[in-house]
Design a protein that fits this description.
The chain has helices at residues 6-17, 61-70; strands spanning 20-21, 80-88, 91-95, 106-108, 117-127, 130-135, 144-149, 155-156, 165-166, 182-183, 189-190. Helices cover 11% and strands 26% of the residues. A hairpin with an 8-residue loop joins strand 8 (155-156) and strand 9 (165-166). The chain is globular and about 55 Å long. The chain contains 2 helices and 11 strands, in the order αβαββββββββββ. It is α+β, with helices and mostly antiparallel strands and 194 residues long. The strands form 3 sheets. Strands 2-3-6-5-4-7 form a 6-stranded antiparallel barrel. Strands 1-9-8 form a 3-stranded antiparallel sheet. A two-stranded antiparallel ribbon has the order 10-11.
């Protein structure tokens, strides 16, 4: 198998800077050329203008999670915790011991292959590991067992022939704000200029 050409490497790097991953450089039913992406950028980002923060090296998930405990600039987004959703008007009450819910985290009914994934829009800390959360919508959600995720669920670019996935604040909403500065499960760093 041939190595990527220098141009292909630049193209793929440009996509990763934009938080776009998984599209090849073909057209038609096999994907898109790098410049055909729906969510591309209109200007290049020059390296001297990129903001770079220290990211400690980790050779496995255990070391990466340990780094998140030590370095304030590193957030562990790989966890999931079983919770019970209790209806509170249009909101939900939950109790956690592992994950403190934050805006942008997700709730699903199961993992993997959930029938719904909802993003958290607001969090009220009631103290003692008890929280009231607001989801981006309650369609398909009911009281009972659920999973609170700090892990990132990707959002499909609907124009990419199922080859491009983007990290969005509200999973499934490709108009919502993009998550920035993250390492994926195979150790690639995705960054964006500010």
């Amino acid at each position: 198998m041939a190595d990527f050409s220098e141009q292909e490497k630049r193209n793929l790097s440009f996509k990763h800077v934009l938080g776009i991953a998984g599209t090849n450089n073909l057209d038609g039913s096999n994907g898109k050329y790098w410049y055909e992406e729906q969510f591309s950028s209109s200007h290049p980002v020059y390296l001297p203008k990129a903001r770079v923060e220290f990211v400690p090296q980790a050779s496995n998930i255990t070391q990466a999670r340990a780094n998140a405990q030590v370095y304030d600039s590193v957030e562990d987004r790989s966890q999931g915790e079983s919770v019970t959703l209790v209806s509170n008007g249009s909101n939900w009450d939950i109790s956690t011991s592992l994950i403190a819910p934050k805006i942008g985290y997700q709730v699903s009914n199961i993992h993997p292959n959930p029938t719904y994934i909802k993003s958290i829009d607001a969090v009220v800390d009631n103290g003692g590991g008890s929280y009231t959360i607001t989801l981006n919508n309650n369609t398909g959600v009911s009281a009972g067992s659920a999973v609170l995720h700090s892990r990132i669920y990707l959002t499909k670019d609907p124009t990419s022939n199922e080859k491009t996935w983007i990290v969005r604040k509200i999973q499934g909403d490709y108009f919502s704000e993009r998550e920035r500065d993250f390492l994926d499960s195979i150790g690639r760093k995705h960054v964006a200029s500010r």
